[in-house]
Write a structure and sequence with these properties.
homotetramer; 109 residues; mainly alpha; 70% helix; 0% strand
Chain lengths: 109, 109, 109, 109
């Protein structure tokens, strides 16, 4: 089983055990995701851009970044599930589409 | 291979083919992720909360939401890779940790 | 009259003329604000950090940044109004509080 | 003097007293703004949409929302200043433009 599906299933169980599905309308889950993206941003905001990756390989930033990235991913998986979207399939399709729309040779946009 | 790892490898190839790694410092990738979260938010902002999930099962919202969720996921996978973080392992660990910190019985926070 | 209050009053008129208040619950306005922050992020994501301010003094970035900053401000003013919060007073109070909590001598956090 | 300009001037003084201008490149300030938007989102994410405004008129949410709205505003004013953009003028111009682009009669988009 794919890990995105394994995480999705663990989240369904987590939510069911606590009776939290009622809170999980798309707009609420989206705001929770925004909250976690904010926590991730706060870890990096004042770091020099050219040193940020290097600094994240040491503690305590490594663990904090790991936790916040996870939080963002978990809410994203939850949101896809609430919306009935197959996230792995969608992401692979998007990459394939991007590869043809952005042929090698230009800067990112 | 896990799909998070498969997507990570496809992104590495995508970036290498275009020589884009130089743009991929953590703060820049984080801003790109914020941009995509913004596009996702715009799809749902004026929808009634109680109808949003249902509306997302029809077109054109279904496809648009699918694309934007994918964009957020892809930048998240890229960011984890740039930071040298094992995203599937981190997410599973976070869920295990949350399960013990939030025992059944309380509302989400 | 303060410009934050003048803009707030113009927004009230704008919304009333169109019958849009029904859409303006805090969570919806917050998502709209997130959408605009995303558009702002997209303007800067791939620019080199050390050149970004300079690049923003020329067109077309100057006008685009101006528009997106405005959009973020307008939704922020709308949100404060929907919540019944006096935004200028709150901001001045926050600055005064920050000045005492962060005496000169340390890096930002 | 307008309150947006008064707050801008207080921020300039705050930053100069602490020698923080070196941290204030646009991308860093933008990430700080994202962090505060995240804190604002966290206050509202699980509240029922139809009750959120009412709940924000009581403590402790009233004070917390006030603080987070202020933080977002302050970073927005800082970002405009770093980019050399006249924020009040830009916001008024944007409203005027929106009033002509969205004549009364349609839902928001």
């Amino acid at each position: 089983m794919s890990d995105l599906e394994a995480l999705r299933d663990r989240l369904r169980e987590f939510s069911a055990e606590r009776g939290w599905s009622g809170f999980h309308d798309p707009k609420s889950v989206l705001l929770a995701l925004v909250g976690e993206v904010g926590e991730l941003a706060e870890l990096f905001q004042w770091l020099p851009a050219s040193k940020a990756a290097e600094l994240a390989r040491s503690e305590p930033l490594r663990t904090r970044a790991s936790e916040e990235l996870s939080d963002v991913l978990l809410y994203l998986i939850l949101l896809a599930d609430v919306l009935g979207i197959d996230l792995p399939a969608a992401a692979h399709a998007k990459l394939t589409d991007s590869a043809s729309r952005y042929p090698p040779g230009a800067a990112p946009s």
